[in-house]
Amino acid sequence: MAVDLLLGLQWGDEGKGKIVDVLTANYDIIARFQGGPNAGHTLEFDGIKHVLRTIPSGIFHETATNVIGNGVVIDPVVFKKELDGLAKFDIDIQQKLIISRKAHLILPTHRLLDAASEASKGKAKIGSTLKGIGPTYMDKTGRNGIRVGDLELDNWKGKYRALTNKHEAMINFYNVDVQYDLQELEEEFFEAVKVLKTLQFIDSEEYLHQAQKSGKTILAEGAQGSLLDIDFGTYPFVTSSNTTAAGACTGLGVAPNKVKDVFGIFKAYTTRVGSGPFPTELFDEVGSEMARIGHEFGAVTGRPRRCGWLDLVALKYATQVNGVTQLMMMKGDVLSGFKTLKVCTAYTYKGETISHLPYNIEPENIEPIFTEFKGWKEDLTQMTDPSQFPKELNDYIDFLEKELEIPIKIVSVGPDRTQTIHR
Ligand code: GDP
Ligand code: IMO
Ligand code: MG
For residue range 133-154, what is the model confidence (pLDDT) as tens digits? Predict the structure, then answer.
């Protein structure tokens, strides 16, 4: 059986959690393949609003099994809080959630290192969520990391201590003001590890292989967005994992020839949280209106998200890198009432017009070229069928499909599970 992928095409927060929740009814297994608690995936249904961090967005469905893959980094402390938040729902977590032994652990000192690294950068900081993501992936690729499977070994605390001692020396090296009480952080950490150990640890690549062989359907859930990919994003203002399609293969052990559909999620406009270039960013009233109507505040940090027009150059790049087969357009409802809509279709780059994403997209090198559209006035949030769409929305969608050469199969018109229109 084939595996489908779902991932964000912009700078994250496209609405991945909502769509995974909507699609879960079609799958036996939902598997997160990368990132960690820097993610905040929001689900809304039956009057409930819930934000997931490490746990896959299929957890609220009766039937699906949820897998945290080897490519994910897990902070036991955040994970325990996530479980506490789910306690009020009647979910058999021990049965429905399983964790790869090969997933790496975020230690308290990884979070401190993140803070020290950002503080040392001053104005050039990444704008990290400070969840320890970068330092944990550094220890993974540096071959020093501690994995979930290590928790089953007797000597893991010795390994933990050696790594923590090294981290403390590194924190001192940064020579910045990071206050902490390691003993307190460790008490919390070891308590949380005990809770983590009540879950099932598995060899998830083998589990997923057998699942495929027996005909089970699998949806791989990405975190962050393609423009935050460590290789293909706006480096260095990126996260530390491969957020793009290839990340699902390495983050789950799924072979490339087993991947079928790649669902690419994008907002009808663009947002970004944290630092880094953003060619279509709006600094005027229009941008603040988008932020206000779209409630553009980070699900993890509460930081305001920067807003701007849709950037088709960047979006096309993301569809190419991922091999997207179906598009899903989110938050179209937020654009209702804007008189004119703009879409960036090319850049002026060093005096020339280009239609690809160049190496350097800092504002001094790039000027976006926009195509304008007439906006629509209608409220989309109560609509249930594409036949109800105003002409201007259809024009907008048709233009995007033509430019991107990929069908837009879902138009989302509100945060709730039910506000999802299939085309
Ligand atoms: P994710 O990280 O990609 O899962 O996205 P987030 O949950 O961080 O951010 C998306 C936000 O938009 C959440 O608050 C969602 O509830 C909300 N949302 C998702 N789809 C829509 C939509 O179509 N319209 C509106 N107005 N809000 C949406
Ligand atoms: P979801 O899965 C939006 C951004 C941070 C920062 C950069 C690096 O909810 O879409 P990190 O914590 O990884 O060191 O931060 O990446 N970032 C996100 N932005 N959505 C996310 O996840 C993000 N995860 C990280 O703001 O700019
Ligand atoms: Mg998010």
Answer: 999 999 999 999 999 999 999 9
Among candidates 387, 299, 390, 373, which has minimal Cα distance to 338?
373
pLDDT of residue 294: 97
pLDDT for 1 beyond 80? no
Query: What's the rounded Cα separation, in Å, for the pair 95 and 83?
Result: 13
Give the CA dihedral 351, 355, 359, 362, nearest 10 degrees. 60
Cβ 265 vs Cβ 14: under 8 Å: yes
Quick one: pLDDT at residue 302? 84
- b or e along 344-377 (b: 16 or more beta carbons within 10 Å of the residue's beta carbon)? bbbbebeeeeeeebeeebeeeebebebeebebbe
Of 9, 13, 38, 380, best ligand 1 pocket probe by most atoms within 8 Å of the beta carbon: 13
Position of tokens 């021990």? 94
How far is Cα 336 from Cα 293, in angstroms, rounded to an integer?
10
pLDDT surpassing 90 at residue 301: no
Which runs of E-coded beta strand occur in 269-339?
270-272, 306-308, 310-311, 326-330
Judge whether 41 counts as a catalytic residue.
yes
- Pair of tokens at residue 243: 């957020």
326-330 and 259-267 strand pairing: parallel
How far, in Å, CA of 314 to CA of 74, rounded? 30
Three-class DSSP category at 320 = helix
Name the closest-CA residue to atom 17, ligand 1. 415
